[in-house]
Amino acid sequence: MATATSETVKGGAWLIEETDPATVFTPEKLNDEHKLIRQTAVEFIKGEVLPVVERLEKKEWSLNRELLKKCGALGLLGTNIPEEYGGVDLDKIATLIVSESIAGQASFATTFGAQANLTILPIYMFGTEAQRQKYLPGLVSGEMAGAYCLSESGSGSDALGAKTKAMKQPDGSFVLSGEKMWISNGGFADVYIVFAKVDGEHFTAFIVERKWPGVSSGKEEHKLGLHGSSTTPIILQDVKVPADAVLGEIGKGHKVAFNVLNFGRFKLGAMCSGGVKINIAEAAKYAASRKQFNTPIATFGAIKHKLGEMTAREYALESMMYRTAGLIDQRIAASPDKKTGNAAPMLLALEEFAVEASIAKVLGSETVDFAIDENLQIHGGNGFVHEYPPEGHYRDARVNRIFEGTNEINRLLIPGMLMKKAMKGELPLMQAAKALQDEIMSPSMSAPDDADGALSAEARACGAFKKVVLMVAGTAMQRFGTKLEQEQEVLSYLADILIDTYASESAVLRAQDATNRKLSNAELHQDAARVTVNESAGRIELAARNALAAMADGDTLRTQLAALRRLLKITPANTVVMRRRLADAAVAKGSYIF
Ligand SMILES: Cc1cc2nc3c(=O)[nH]c(=O)nc-3n(C[C@H](O)[C@H](O)[C@H](O)COP(=O)(O)OP(=O)(O)OC[C@H]3O[C@@H](n4cnc5c(N)ncnc54)[C@H](O)[C@@H]3O)c2cc1C
Fold it and tell me: If residue 374 lies in a helix (H) or strand (E), which one and from where to where?
């Protein structure tokens, strides 16, 4: 196998290249260090957090701080931070595992995320040596608590439209004034990453301490869920901030904000993936124990369908998460200037995989909502009652589609960022789209063959999905040119096709690898991958038809739709029996099966 370099490990490359299943990182390839960190995080949540949920929900913030300290002592806050600043410096797979496991309690996961992802990371990635020395040891040990103040009441999605000002003073210091909204950990943090416009113009990040005169937090928001997580406004009233509190460069606050979001979105996807597993376990156990008509409801086909579908969707999400984390790690490892304390390779790798991070965020947040809804439905009336877990999950999870960039914004970013890469010549997307167009016009263009061999038909279907992406993207570029960004519906359809394509291919590659390595549960891997591809094919066809019909008509549209039909002429699989097998295995195990 050729050695990976920063030239060969590229975000979005999966769209135009074939991937060897053996090169893909999967949960079956975890090492002992990964397993240990998972055990540590899971035991922490079960032993320390779940027993005190009621107190957290009563907003006993000193308890959140105590729990952060315990996380710090266990090394969970510093998985990406070098030892010299108190971290444990593990790979991104380990970070993914910690995020998945912390999801065991959603409110605390938000507290944890605001600290580890939104405060520690920007200081490590953009801080000066003095800023790192001053803040990281306290934050990584959990002695200090942090929060990230980007949003304002008038600017959430449009974060760069912030009104908070930082007026430059003759001595080089700044005076900050403004109000930030919906700040997680706002009620108890000591350190805030605050975004403000220098002299009302230059968007800039600052490190601001709560103890500085003029900093205060407003009243706690009464939220739908996440009652154990603090969310407040942060008020800045003429706060004098020293010159050395600027994080990164003046006027480059967007770099801090967007890069933090890149990783934050990936980790949110991981937390959601952890949440899906919890819901599968609860649903499988309940279905096994609840009887109606003198029969456990788990034996009913309608319930098996739900459990099987939840399992297949989690399989695809999880496969995509581990594949992406593996790619980010490969990219960092391939960097020529990789050395301890140099954050640049990580920053560049996260930028490189920003599309995949947005996919993780959208797919993760929508898969967990799907799984919670089905878990609640399997619980029947009990699902609607506070004493049973789905009711709380239902409220807690809803915000995942809103924060870290709404799913609408992320859907626009997914194709938008890919096309930018193409324009910059980093990804030969347009060349591939042109080649496909020539192929489409040729009447000899064939459908993917039905083939023998484990999952070769599904692999071919994934190849066809990629061609659909190219077809829709190419048509959109031709039709709208530079005005494409105004065509949000088409971009959103394209995003949906891209999400299903990346997730399906990730599932197929993992199942092929499991088959090639003769894992004992390889057949269940195959079932999950086949269900994923089958369902994706239907969704992709519909999204592509809608997108194409919005861009062409008459003969052109007819030719395109005929080509689409040929591409997606995929023989449907008997997913009923596959879902039944997946459901039976989940019920027998009382949990997610992979
Ligand atoms: C519990 C909670 C915790 C939070 N924690 C933090 C935190 O720690 N730090 C922080 O800075 N922020 C935080 N936020 C804020 C969060 O990031 C914002 O709420 C989010 O970015 C959306 O912004 P908004 O609420 O202003 O919605 P808006 O931007 O007003 O969006 C409203 C609707 O319009 C859509 N929309 C907006 N612009 C476009 C567009 N250009 N094209 C298409 N559709 C569009 C959106 O998708 C959405 O559906 C938190 C929010 C909540 C609820």
Answer: helix 354-378
- Ligand 1 binding pocket includes 99 (Cβ within 6 Å): no
Tell me the C-alpha distance between 517 and 522, whole Å: 9
Contact 394, 474 (CB under 8 A): no
Q: What is the dihedral of CA 264, 266, 268, 272, to 10 degrees?
A: 180
Q: Quick check: CB of 182 below 6 Å from ligand 1? A: yes
Asked if residue 406 has its Cβ within 6 Å of ligand 1, the reply is: yes
Annotated catalytic residue, options 391, 404, 487, 541:
404
For residue 179, what are the β-bridge partners? Answer: 235
Measured distance CA(269)–CA(521) in Å, rounded = 25
Atom of ligand 1 minimally distant from the CA of 405: 21
- pLDDT of amino acid 348: 92
**Residue having the nearest C-alpha atom to atom 31 of ligand 1:** 157
pLDDT tens per residue across span 94-103: 999 999 999 9
Report residue 236 as tokens: 């800045």
Query: How far apart are alpha carbons 501 and 513 in whole angstroms?
Result: 18
Predicted confidence (pLDDT) per residue in 2-11, tens digit: 556 666 789 9
> 161, 154 in Cβ contact below 8 A?
yes
Q: Catalytic site residue 404? A: yes
In one-letter notation, the amino acid at residue 552 is: A
Q: Whose CA is nearest to atom 35 of ligand 1?
A: 408
Euclidean distance between CA atoms 204 and 497, whole angstroms: 36
For ligand 1, atom 42, name the residue with the nearest CA.
409
Residue of minimum CA distance from atom 40 in ligand 1:
409
pLDDT at 1: 43
Q: What dihedral angle (degrees, nearest 10) is formed by the CA atoms of 495, 499, 500, 503?
A: 170
| Cα separations in angstroms, 203 against 150, 247, 253, 265, 381 | 11, 11, 5, 22, 50
Q: What is the pLDDT of residues 206-218, one digit of tens each?
A: 999 999 999 999 9
Task: Report how far residue 181's alpha carbon sits from residue 218's, in angstroms, rounded to the nearest whole number.
Answer: 9
Mean pLDDT of the chain: 95
Assess whether the C-beta atom of 402 lies below 6 angstroms from ligand 1.
Answer: yes
The helix (run of H) or strand (run of E) holding residue 166 is strand 165-168
